[in-house]
Write a structure and sequence with these properties.
166 residues, mainly alpha, 66% helix, 6 helices, flat, single chain
Length: 166
């Protein structure tokens, strides 16, 4: 019985320690400056792309420049009207602005693809320019909401909300 109590106590200490360690990690990242986030991203890419020190020295400044130019392609959020209050002309103009920003981003990616091609091999380029695979990318294709009987989901994702009621 005494051994069981000791075992349970040790188990709780280990589990509790890992929970507190994870909370500190999240808080630490939330306080990072944009420069620190960029450095963390470059270190992550250095490991993911298996870059040596010589290649990293060339890659880091080019990647920072690339990310800054990509950031400048995005339209800055303005004080826009509510979606319901916009006129048809405003909706059309917003869509044209969005298309222009997407084209500018594509042109930037092509421009920097040629520059990165001088530093990285084909497999590294593929990883660098691969579509994002995080939570946000999954949400973009997920069609939430209950489905009516007989209505098919446009993009089946395997989640309950996309399953048709039986």
């Amino acid at each position: 019985m005494k051994k069981l109590n000791v075992f349970v106590t040790m188990l709780l200490l280990v589990v509790g320690g890992t929970v507190f360690a994870q909370e500190k990690q999240v808080k630490k990242c939330a306080k990072c400056t944009p420069e620190q986030r960029m450095e963390m991203k470059i270190k992550h890419l250095q490991q993911a792309l298996s870059l040596d020190d010589k290649t990293t020295a060339k890659f880091a400044p080019l990647y920072k420049e690339y990310m800054q130019e990509l950031g400048s392609c995005c339209a800055k959020p303005e004080a826009k009207q509510k979606k319901a209050d916009r006129t048809d002309e405003q909706i059309i103009q917003d869509m044209k602005d969005r298309f222009a920003a997407q084209q500018k981003m594509l042109d930037t990616k092509i421009k920097y693809f040629d520059k990165f091609q001088k530093i990285l091999n084909a497999r590294q380029l593929e990883k660098l320019f691969a579509p994002r695979q995080g939570k946000m990318a999954k949400r973009a294709f997920h069609q939430p909401g209950p489905k009516k009987p007989g209505q098919k989901c446009e993009r089946p994702c395997g989640k309950e909300c996309c399953q048709l009621p039986k």
